[in-house]
Amino acid sequence: MSNVALRKRISIFLNRTYLYPAPDPLPCGRSFWIATGLVATAFLLFSGFFIYYLTGMHDVYLTHAEDLGIMDQAIWNTVHGQWLRQTICNAINDTNCSGLAGISRFALHVEPILFLVALFYLIVPNPKTLLVLQTLVVASGAFPAFWLARLRLRNEWAGAVIALLYLLYPAQQRATVFDFHAVTFTAALLLFTLYFMYTRRTVWLFVFAILSMACKEEIAGLVVMFGLWSIIFQRRWRSGSLLVLLAFAWTGMSLLVLHLFSPLGHSLLTSRYTYLGSNPFKIALTLLAHPGNTLRNFVLQRDHLLYLRGLLVPAGFLPLLAPWILLLALPTLALNLLSNDPQVYSGLFHYSAEIVPVLIFATIEAIVLAIWLLQLLSFVWQRRVRRLALARLPLAMLPRSWNFQFARLAHVSLLILLLGYVLVSVIRFDYLRDNIMPFSPRFQWPQTNAHLALADRFIAMIPPTASVSAQSNLVPHISERRSIYLFPYADDEADYIFLDVTSNTIYPFFGSPDYIREVKAVILGGHYGVVAAEDGYLLLKRGLPPTTISPYSLTQAASNLDRRFLLPELPASFCSFTQPLVQKVDNPVQVTFSSATTGAPVADLIGFRVDALNPFSVAGGGMTVTTYWRVIAPTEIPLQPIAFVTDRHNQEHLVSFDFPGTYWCQTNAWKPGMVVKLQSRSFGLRQYFSVPTGLVHLSIALVPLTQSFGTIMAVQQRLPLHIVQSSGKISATQGSNGLNLGSLMLVP
Fold it and tell me: What is the CATH number of domain 579-747?
């Protein structure tokens, strides 16, 4: 091929890809200002709701060490002279720990925007400051979404709908509600970047590109894609090339910062990808050498498909019609899909925040494409009709203005149809799949209670200069100190240990057995004594007289038994969480459970409550089971409830044996006449993929506490039961010594 022919082909290709010339301005008339007012109102409503909701979540101890505690400590330390130093880390299943002295945040991520955030700590040093600031920044993304959609769709009202789509988008909301992360800012900052890129306002483009990259090192990859897109589709060679060069320079700077601050010479989190290769070059070679494996393992695998589906469903899959826009998110999608950490591609956290602006832009462009196709079809149809004019068809004799009006009506109708479609899609997703918006059936306002109020009293006992190892949900309330650790890290070195054994949050432990073993090992280890123990809270101090083993314990020697089954001698007030404050119980019944050996009655189940949505989502649902017991006689050995479901094939599936009270307030220590409440930790069915969707029956049974996991479902180990009194909501499971509490419809 000659050079002339090659240049001609390149010229033709470039002309065909020149799809985004400088936009024609739109007048700012009355409808513009009304639409702007609506967007501003949506901004205020979003901000007000999420500020109230998130600060309420913090007040009721529903925020976490990772990452609100980390960020609060790092920024507090910055204000106090130690730049972004953190000591909070996951010592069990992550690689972000590097000694009790802690590390700089720069050993994990490059987020210089946190220095700007630290300025607010000079005024109000509080974790709530981060939640308020994050909400306001994210909400501001409604304005560039409005401006961009208005220009592309040439309609103010369409722009307002797209702004609302952004505010309702689940991936953005999940990032907003999950504590605080600098990268969550990019949901708005990248939308500003896209808007200024499209409108060719170069100075502001670079300002917001830099602000976006300052939120996390990986954002530079998106900015590279933005620059290439601008070169190809806008023919902006100079600014696009400078944007690409800036992003590469930022990446080089980030790698240098990570090398200087990390004890390993690179980010402590790169272990999430080392199974593919020890460096980016080897990772690329692995992926290119095995494209089939890459597609099968990282795209077509079930969890990954669910993640991609969760990103696209809220926009009704319309972004798929604009693949030239979706490619802008490829760097982040690759990072998420290739990670060996399931949380990254679960879709439940902050890892998709920077993808949301691309999805919004792709939705806009998909609507533009649909309208363009309609106009093309309308043009072809009109030409065909005109060609039939000789046949004197009545339609062909219509005035041209009528044809224009018909085309305009079709344009507006399609626009309304598509905008209504995406709004219905996102609202339906928010309603069925999430529990974030108030109109979702699973939504609950944060509510305090006497147990949560008690935590403040325990916190007041901890000196502000003491080092503390604390449970995840407790950490953000005591994180403004130089040394704060996520339990079990430093549980042999910290001055104090602060725990809540009743909490649903036992991260970084995957399950209660390991958590309980560790807590009891610390209590009985001889290095810590009890400062206070009440209603499930434990405050331990190093150097106090150690706790002994209770006479009710199955053994007095730790070496003879799994530590879970050792019972420390704690004050009676510690078990108050198993004692209901009022005698009124939910769903009153009377079901007598008897000893499997003597047949003598042991306890009556006098009430129960199942907190679960019906239908119940296997992918994202959570439930708790609460049971109320009246003690008839002490048991010979400790017992525990188990919860299981029976599917339509009459197969039983264990779903929980995690009732904390049975490990700390054992049934063999119960006194006759007592009323005891045993509540499970919240559990889901996501890990039980063997449970088929459809109708299932939720049941409970009583089994020995020491029953091994392998035989915990053995029917012969369950205590016999007899229904004495029932309201008709329960039934005995034939031949299985199980008590059916009700039915659930499982959905994906």
Answer: 2.60.40.770
